């Protein structure tokens, strides 16, 4: 039973040509992207690739991921038999049967069992797509076509092997049943007279499915089979909690308005997207009915690149705009402004696509090149530029929160820590109470600390996430100058946005600070015995804790605020259904604090209702933005009996009796 190489060989050559052309076309478009160094720390990158691409760590984080794990590893293992199939079709003398029996027979068993597992996994995937797809648009002809091709390959493989076994001499049947149990079962269904026909039909069905899959692969979303593994290798090794710096010199372009202005890694991301929908299922904007869908954003970038590729290579104007209402392949402005930069999409993505930074890059273009942004941001930008705070309050008012206290200015010769109060802690009437509580706790613990007073300036977090990099750049440089002149080395912050910006973004400006969030600092003070508690804050009742996106997902600080609450109340806080790295955003990040929500349900209301499901007396937070969003949300749902407290306030009630 041998195939005819005369027919198969030209078909294989044509298929390989189509496959190579498709791969070249797409990878050449990726090369249009801007330079970015993702070739550092090769050893670590290989380890990350093995863990996440081959080990499928993030895929397995969801129950259905096991099914994909089976399909993925079936594909990897069956590369051996499929490669043999192709070579055998051209050179019939090539066969795995030439291997030593100690290798050949176990390999047959593995291939037989894996083929069955793959077939079962494909059927499950088909049923899921019909009954409960990951998202409505996932029920596509393309998806079923690819799954059908894989199923055809598996069934044809059993047909080929079954036909061969049916013609084996009796003395070999016991060996076949041992090492090819599934194929032997199929062989029992084949009559001797039908063996040749079954083999021929099965062989050519296998060939047709394999060659068709090869031709179709580079032109479909299943290109991720080739790009997901390198995408995991080239992943950002550090947390994606900052954006690249721009240089404001004549001739530079700012932000991204067409696909080739993204980096090559951004474009590889678009090719690596599996369209699994995990990002959109955790996106707070998408969940609450906003037009933003991170999966669709990445898809539109890919479509835009494919449609405009030839023009971009020639340096011509793209036919389809990247930003606008051009349909598929364009990202609407309303979508771009809907992002809270919470990072949930990046945390969920199995192949480490960076959706949020791409949105910020498009925001930069709109703000810096087009001056197009939501109207409510005009006052924010003017206030930031003129008075270095979102409200436009005079800098002299920054110390009013501590008017009734004796707070010393920071002195590099006598002060160890700078308390960076932040704009909310200085000006927001509710957050001022947190500043006072924190200051009192620092004093009681004997910490050497001081403030910059009226010389303190906004860190610029909202500006950078909203795309106003020009003003952020000026603000960051001024802050770096002040910190350097004052000799600041250690900083305590109460705002996670200040914490993340000073710790991560300012490194781009050469400023290396030891930045610690107040939840970590207070936890350490109590645990080290510097801060004695006078009792517990039992009067707070049942407490539930909400994770700040910029403290948790962006900086991996999860335990400290919980430990502070437990130390202060004598009991661990109740967890919401979505917590830690899966926590739901309050809706204020990414500059959304200063914007209204005009579509769908307000994000903070969704989170407030989730918190109220746990029937708390107190909702604990560790961020002034979260504090504001929860208090506003509780008022809207008329839950007046539930209080919102920052962890510093909770600890102060136990330590300052």
UniProtKB/TrEMBL annotation:
Q: Which PROSITE patterns match?
A: 4FE4S_FER_1, 4FE4S_FER_2
Q: State the UniProt keywords alphabetically.
A: 4Fe-4S, Iron, Iron-sulfur, Membrane, Metal-binding, Oxidoreductase, Transmembrane, Transmembrane helix
Q: Name one GO cellular component term.
A: plasma membrane
- Transmembrane region positions? 6-24, 64-83, 103-127, 139-158
Which Pfam families does its entry note?
A: CCG, Fer4_9
SUPFAM superfamilies tied to this protein: alpha-helical ferredoxin, Respiratory nitrate reductase 1 gamma chain
Q: Where is the 4Fe-4S ferredoxin-type domain?
A: 264-293, 327-359
Q: Name one GO molecular function term.
A: 4 iron, 4 sulfur cluster binding
Q: Which PANTHER family match?
A: IRON-SULFUR-BINDING OXIDOREDUCTASE FADF-RELATED, IRON-SULFUR-BINDING OXIDOREDUCTASE FADF-RELATED-RELATED
Protein name (record): 4Fe-4S dicluster domain-containing protein
Native organism: Oryzomonas rubra
């Amino acid at each position: 039973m041998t195939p005819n190489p005369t027919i198969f060989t030209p078909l294989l050559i044509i298929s390989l040509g189509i496959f190579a052309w498709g791969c070249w076309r797409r990878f050449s478009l990726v090369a249009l992207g801007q330079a970015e160094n993702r070739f550092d720390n090769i050893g670590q990158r290989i380890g990350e690739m093995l863990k996440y691409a081959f080990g499928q760590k993030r895929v397995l984080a969801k129950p259905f991921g096991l099914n994909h794990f089976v399909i993925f590893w079936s594909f990897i293992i069956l590369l051996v038999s499929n490669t043999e199939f192709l070579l055998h079709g051209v050179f019939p003398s090539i066969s795995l049967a030439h291997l030593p029996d100690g290798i050949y027979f176990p390999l047959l068993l593995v291939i037989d069992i894996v083929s069955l597992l793959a077939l079962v996994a494909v059927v499950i995937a088909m049923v899921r797509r019909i009954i409960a797809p990951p998202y409505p648009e996932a029920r596509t002809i393309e998806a079923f076509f690819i799954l059908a091709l894989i199923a055809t390959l598996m069934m044809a493989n059993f047909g080929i092997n079954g036909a061969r076994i049916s013609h084996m001499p009796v003395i070999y049947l016991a060996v076949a049943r041992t090492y090819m149990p599934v194929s032997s079962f199929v062989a029992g269904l084949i009559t001797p007279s039908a063996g040749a026909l079954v083999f021929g039909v099965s062989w050519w069905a296998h060939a047709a499915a394999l060659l068709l899959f090869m031709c179709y692969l580079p032109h479909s979303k299943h290109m991720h089979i080739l790009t997901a593994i390198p995408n995991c290798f080239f992943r950002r090794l550090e947390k994606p909690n900052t954006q690249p710096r721009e240089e404001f010199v004549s001739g530079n372009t700012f932000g991204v308005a067409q696909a080739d202005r993204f980096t090559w890694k951004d474009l590889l991301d678009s090719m690596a997207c599996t369209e699994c929908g995990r990002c959109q299922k955790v996106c707070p904007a998408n969940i609450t009915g906003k037009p933003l869908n991170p999966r669709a954003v990445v898809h539109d970038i890919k479509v835009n690149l494919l449609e405009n590729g030839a023009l971009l290579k020639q340096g011509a104007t793209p036919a389809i705009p990247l930003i606008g209402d051009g349909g598929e392949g364009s990202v609407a402005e309303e979508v771009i402004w809907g992002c809270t930069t919470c990072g949930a999409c990046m945390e969920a993505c199995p192949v480490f696509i960076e959706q949020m930074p791409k949105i910020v890059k498009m925001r930069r273009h709109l703000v810096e090149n087009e001056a197009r942004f939501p109207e409510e941001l005009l006052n924010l930008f003017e206030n930031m530029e003129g008075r270095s705070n979102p409200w436009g309050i005079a800098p002299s008012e920054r110390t009013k929160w501590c008017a009734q206290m004796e707070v010393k200015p920071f002195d590099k010769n006598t002060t160890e820590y700078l308390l960076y109060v932040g704009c909310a802690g200085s000006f927001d009437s509710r957050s001022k109470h947190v500043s006072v509580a924190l200051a009192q706790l620092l004093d009681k613990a004997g910490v050497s600390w001081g403030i910059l007073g009226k010389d303190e300036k906004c860190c610029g977090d909202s500006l950078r996430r909203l795309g106003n990099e020009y003003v952020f750049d000026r603000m960051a440089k001024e802050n770096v100058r002040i910190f350097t002149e004052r000799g600041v080395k250690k900083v305590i912050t109460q705002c996670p946005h200040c914490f993340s910006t000073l710790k991560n973004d300012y490194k781009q400006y050469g400023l290396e600070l030891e930045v610690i969030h107040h939840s970590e600092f207070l936890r350490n003070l109590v645990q080290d015995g510097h801060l004695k508690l006078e009792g517990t804050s039992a009067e707070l009742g049942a407490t539930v804790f909400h994770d700040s996106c910029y403290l948790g997902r962006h900086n991996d600080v999860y335990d400290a605020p919980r430990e502070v609450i437990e130390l202060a109340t004598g009991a661990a806080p109740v967890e919401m259904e979505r917590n830690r790295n899966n926590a739901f955003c309050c809706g204020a990040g990414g500059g959304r604090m200063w914007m209204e929500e005009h579509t769908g349900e307000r994000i903070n209301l969704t989170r407030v209702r989730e918190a109220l499901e746990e029937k708390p007396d107190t909702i604990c937070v560790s961020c002034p933005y979260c504090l504001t969003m929860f208090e506003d949300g509780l008022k809207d749902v008329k839950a007046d009996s539930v209080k919102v407290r920052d962890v510093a306030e909770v600890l102060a009630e136990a330590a300052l009796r």
